Amino acid sequence: MLDKKIIMMLNEQVNYEMYSAYIYHKMQLAYEDLGLRGYARWYDIQAKEEMDHAKRIENFLMDSGEKVCLKSIEEPAETMDDVEKMLKLALKHEKSVTCKIHAIYREALERKDIVSLEFLNWFLSEQVEEEKNARDNIQLYHNYIGCGCGLMNADKKMSQREE
Ligand code: FEO
Does residue 148 surpass a pLDDT of 80? Predict the structure, then answer.
């Protein structure tokens, strides 16, 4: 049986992962508008990955005999029309996800909820990778942008993400 506060926080995290998917879906649409199909593909895959994260938490709650409570998903307020700003926004967002995962982990630690701690270990590692990916995308942009056809080459590179 899971701790009640942890159940509430995990339910909130389901919503936040879905909100993450919504942010990346909005980025996908923005990149399509900019004619950057490689970036659009990268963020389409990312949006699906965020839904997988939500599903992973849902499954954990259900497997533990708890209910999943779906809530409204907030509209991403940010204007998305600039590549560099979107890349930086992605990193800022991933840092916010990391903070939330750490907060749940600390709470589970305090409440000695060992089952949730074990479950959350995967998310700790995943967030290291998520922040790295966001930083790498910023680096790639800066590496290519100075050269002729830089953005087109960066877009080609982004299109190579595997599902
Ligand atoms: Fe589900 Fe990008 O963290």
Answer: no
Task: Let me know: does 125 contact 41? Beta carbons within 8 Å.
Answer: no
pLDDT per position as a tens digit, 18-49: 999 999 999 999 999 999 999 999 999 999 99
Ligand 1 contact, 44 CB (< 6 A)? no
Biggest alpha carbon–alpha carbon distance for the chain? 59
Residues 104/13, Cβ–Cβ less than 8 Å: yes
The average confidence (pLDDT) of the chain is: 95
* Token pair recorded at residue 129: 């990778």
Tell me, in angstroms, the distance from the centre of ligand 1 to residue 148's CA.
33
**In this model, does residue 135 exceed pLDDT 80?**
yes
At 79, is the secondary structure helix, strand, or coil?
A: coil
Report the run of H or E that residue 105 belongs to, with start and end. Answer: helix 83-110
CA dist 54 → 13, 20, 43, 88 (Å): 7, 10, 17, 23
Report how far residue 76's alpha carbon sits from residue 24's, in angstroms, rounded to the nearest whole number. Answer: 9
What is the DSSP code (8-state) at residue 78? S
Distance (Å) from CA 22 to ligand 1 centroid? 11
